[in-house]
């Protein structure tokens, strides 16, 4: 039988997202039960696993993948978390993630850099209340991948939408 190390993956994601056991366990299970799950002493129920995955911003299938690239999974998890914070208008929490990930080598390529700059521009508007700097950042984010300003990708259209909202 294949060993999936579900608890290990939960702990790894929880720590990378800087979420405490108490916060992650809220309304799912007791913190001491989460500790047992992370140690591999217990397995979560399917409803618990579904809620944990949702709270960690990942698909439930993440726990059962055998050939996965940790860096890609981490970046995708962070992006999902950032989208969730933006959707829920949790701009201060979003801003903290942006600032932390700006230092990461995983967010240095064009698309990931654009994603961070886009969300930082949103935060600058909502948290710092700086409309001019926000718009400047959003336009700069667009120019990272589209200097010609034509044939827009989905993310570029969403950045333009953010500009329109601001």
Task: Tell me what the structure shows.
The protein is built from nine helices and no strands. The longest helix is centred in the middle third of the chain and has 18 residues, at 70-87. It has two domains: 6-64, lambda repressor-like DNA-binding domains (434 Repressor (Amino-terminal Domain), Orthogonal Bundle); 70-165, Alpha Horseshoe (Serine Threonine Protein Phosphatase 5, Tetratricopeptide repeat). The chain starts with 5 loop residues before the first helix and ends with a helix. The protein is mostly helical. α1 (6-16) crosses α3, α6 (91-101) packs antiparallel against α7 (110-126) and α7 (110-126) runs antiparallel to α8 (131-145). Helix content is 66%, strand content 0%. The radius of gyration is 18 Å and the shape is elongated.
List key phrases describing it.
166 residues, 2 domains, 9 helices
Task: Walk me through the topology.
Layout: H1 6-16, H2 21-25, H3 31-39, H4 46-56, H5 70-87, H6 91-101, H7 110-126, H8 131-145, H9 154-165
Helix pairs in contact: 1-3, 5-6, 5-7, 6-7, 7-8, 8-9
Cα Rg: 18 Å
Oligomer class: single chain
Can you tell me the overall shape?
elongated
Helix vs. strand class: mainly alpha
Order of helices and strands: HHHHHHHHH
Mean pLDDT: 87
Integer count of domains: 2
Number of strands: 0
Helicity, as a percent range? 55-70%
Task: Note the beta-strand portion.
Answer: under 5%
| CATH architectural name of the largest domain | Alpha Horseshoe
The main sheet comes to: none
- Low-confidence parts, pLDDT < 50 over ≥5 residues? none
What is CATH's topology name of the largest domain? Serine Threonine Protein Phosphatase 5, Tetratricopeptide repeat
Name of the CATH class of the largest domain: Mainly Alpha
- Helix count equals 9
**What is the end-to-end distance?**
53 Å
């Amino acid at each position: 039988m294949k060993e999936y190390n579900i608890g290990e993956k939960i702990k790894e994601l929880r720590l990378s997202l800087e979420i405490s056991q108490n916060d992650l366990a809220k309304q799912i299970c007791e913190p001491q039960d989460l500790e047992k799950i992370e140690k591999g002493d217990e397995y979560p129920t399917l409803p618990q696993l579904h809620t944990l995955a949702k709270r960690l911003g990942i698909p439930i299938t993440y726990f059962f993948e055998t050939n996965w690239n940790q860096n890609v999974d981490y970046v995708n998890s962070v992006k999902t978390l950032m989208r969730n914070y933006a959707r829920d208008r949790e701009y201060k929490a979003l801003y903290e993630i942006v600032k932390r990930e700006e230092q990461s080598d995983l967010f240095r390529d064009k698309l990931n850099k654009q994603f961070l700059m886009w969300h930082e521009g949103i935060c600058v508007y909502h948290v710092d209340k700086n409309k001019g700097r926000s718009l400047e950042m959003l336009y700069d984010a667009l120019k990272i991948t589209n200097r010609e300003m034509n044939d827009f990708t989905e993310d570029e259209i969403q950045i333009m939408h953010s500009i329109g909202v601001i």
